[in-house]
Amino acid sequence: MNRPEIIKRHEFLSGIRDTLPLLLGALPFGLIYGAIAATSGLSMTAAILMSALVFAGSSQFIAVGLVAAQTPVAIIVLTTLIVNLRHMLYSATLLPYLKDLPQRWRIPLAFWLTDETFAVTVHRFQRSDSSPCKHWYQLGSSIAMYLNWQFWCFLGLVLGNRIPDAQSWGLDVAMPVTFIGMIIPFVKTIPVLVSVLTAGAASLLTLAMPYKLGIVVSAFAGIASGLLAQRIIDARREEQRR
């Protein structure tokens, strides 16, 4: 095996390894999605296809709930699109590192991009080493998350009603805790801290907004506040130099 192939293999396996701690966190979400989908009126085929083709936990939960409420298809599609707008922010962050890749790479990496994979991958891209194969790291993380999610969703579908009172498993607490755990490693500067606190406060204030629009509003509020904090810090540094 030549050196480039060794580097690719190392990056790929490192992506899988660094994602392993997050795989167990998907267990309750996948099981509960499958259990709820099994009792929502969706056929097993439709539920499996949704999991395989949408691959977005929050959107899948929302879509299943809307299907159970017999919501029009157009509203379901629009709502899931709005909830997934945060992935545009993820993509914009990763674009400088992936822009030179061919479409055959960028399309699958974009499809497989999740909150967990983004959190793991962005750390790898931000390291100062000159590895030309960091996208293989993202591929390893992406495939690990994808196969893991499909497995737990399928198991939830198979178990169905045998999972007692799935909707009361406390995901309203577990999901925020999971996200907080992914965010903490990024809080290393004042602008990032301001961004996180602002987004958190905004999410509480916009909790009642329909179609989960509060997620998008909170994300943009966090970005804007972080940029503003960085500008203020830069301006003060410039004044001190004079």
UniProtKB/TrEMBL annotation:
Keywords: Cell membrane, Membrane, Transmembrane, Transmembrane helix, Transport. GO terms for cellular component: plasma membrane. Pfam families: AzlC. This is Inner membrane protein YgaZ. Belongs to the AzlC family. It comes from Candidatus Accumulibacter phosphatis. It is found in: Cell membrane. GO terms for biological process: L-valine transmembrane transport. It is a multi-pass membrane protein. The chain crosses the membrane at residues 31-54, 61-85, 143-163, 215-233.
